[in-house]
Every structure is written in C-alpha cells, then in structure tokens.
C-alpha cells in the first residue's frame, strides 16, 4: 500500500468520524489488523506500507 502522506505512525487519536472523510485512517486500520507492519519513504512524496495480516484458515466440509 502506498499513499502521499508522510506520517509513519498512526495518529494518537482517531480522526472524528465523518461519512465524507476519505483520509486519515489508513495507518489506524493497518495497526489494528496487522501483527507486524512497517513503512518506508516513497520519493518524491509519501510512504509505502507493508503489513503481515493473519488470515483464518477456511474449513472444508
């Protein structure tokens, strides 16, 4: 995942809920869902984020 924001850590407080809001929650979601993640600068602007997210095994009948 990559975006144009330069912040490399999630905000300390989640942004106010706004149905029209389309930004400001990405790192909060990554932090909540991933067991491990990190970011690297993306030049000329932004960052690239990589994450390990656990996936439940599907049961086969």
What does the model show?
The protein is an alpha+beta fold and 61 residues long. The chain has one helix and three strands. A three-stranded antiparallel sheet has the order 1-3-2, with no helix packed on it. The longest helix is centred in the middle third of the chain and has 8 residues.
Shape: extended
If you average the pLDDT, what whole number results?
A: 80
Q: Uncertain spans, ≥5 residues at pLDDT below 50?
A: none
Radius of gyration: 14 Å
Strand order of the largest sheet: 1-3-2
Range of strand content: 15-25%
Largest sheet data: 3 strands, antiparallel
Would you tell me the structural class of the helices and strands?
A: alpha+beta
Question: Oligomer, anyone?
Answer: single chain
Write the H/E string, N to C: EHEE
- The residue fraction in helices comes out at 10-25%
Number of alpha- plus pi-helical segments: 1
The span between the termini is 34 Å
Strand segment count: 3
Short description:
The chain has 61 residues and is of the alpha+beta class.
Blueprint (SSEs and pairs):
Blueprint: E1 2-3, H1 26-33, E2 36-41, E3 47-52
Antiparallel strand pairs: 1-3, 2-3
Supply the key terms.
1 helix, 61 residues, 13% helix, alpha+beta, 23% strand, single chain
